[in-house]
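Deliverable D4.2, example record:
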Amino acid sequence: MIKRARRVLATACIAVILPAISRAAQHPSPVVVHVWKVGSPHRGDMPVAAIPSSLDAEARRLGFELQMRVFRARDFASAFFSARVTNDEPDILVIDNMGHIDGITTPLGSFDGIASDPNVAAILVRVSESLHEFQPAPWEYLIRTSKHHAQAKALATRPIECQSTWPDAVGSPVLKTAEQAVVAYFLDATSTYTGLVSGDPTDTAIRLPHEPRSITDVRVCDGWGSDRLAFMQVVAAFEGQDEIGYRTFLAAVASVGGEPRALMLGGSTTIIPALRRDAAPFFTDATGPAVEPPIVVAPEDGATATRMPPETRPMVSWITRGAAFCLIEWQFGQSTGEKWEGSGFAFVRNGPETSRDGAPVTMRAPFGVGRQPHRWRIWAISDRGDVARSPWRTLFYTN
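Output generated by the structure prediction step:
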């Protein structure tokens, strides 16, 4: 009787277990991508463990889940090195200070940087822009040796989704030229980029990820203007040697001889909302005098000036004829005045402080990134969208 009871019990257990195993096989546990978020070495805070809804939804679409673990700054490095031993390092690392990578001393003490170990430095992959929902500060990394690096990489290089709507006045040839110019510049296809540009191709000066690098997607996501002249936000999804993610460009495209040509690419798109706010209505069928290249009056090329406080920056002055408004463009460079990078723009409305009749336009220099040289020039833009630009001038800041 006892043996028979045991056989019945065993059969019953198997009957229960087998369907459970079958269900588990049909619905396996999802892959979990682990996110570590680290607090500030200046504040000593514990970050909030919250997964942004947009990234959570995208991860689930890609077939995995995100889980977050948070650390105070003082606990991070030791936890990371311990996790390396058992291959439990995070798939995504979110930090708000580069001191977690390079090491830093603050009023709270000294903090080891994980890149002090050269083996760790070699496995860090910088993520540009595409995971910015995790925090305002732009420092996210992937770990090449993590268990779910492939899934984390898929999230960081996912296809671009644009949220903005485009003005009807901008046609597809203009958009296509902006995309082609970004791709050619990003891939260092010099001859192709030169063929798409009106003016000097070296006016574009943007730091790019180390080679080898490739673009996996490119989209025009925002902009302002018309087929005569448009300023566009172009986003590229990319993979580089030690950096992946998105890179946002400003593309200025104008009609030159009836064909769209890029005037330049820049690294800041803040001029787009300024144009949308301050330059409308714009681009009439006016047939007034052609806009002339601006004549810069001051300061002299190669001048020196103080940068801080801002009210000590020099006054810049120029003369323009035929312009509805102007833009000041600037780039910053190294101490020797080379390897420029940028560009940034400031909008100058045609009004009481400006003139179309040849009187000088004067304003405080709106640029000053650091104690380093800047080069700057003036764009004069007519009611029709015609553009004329001054030559570059260089200004050296001494503080």
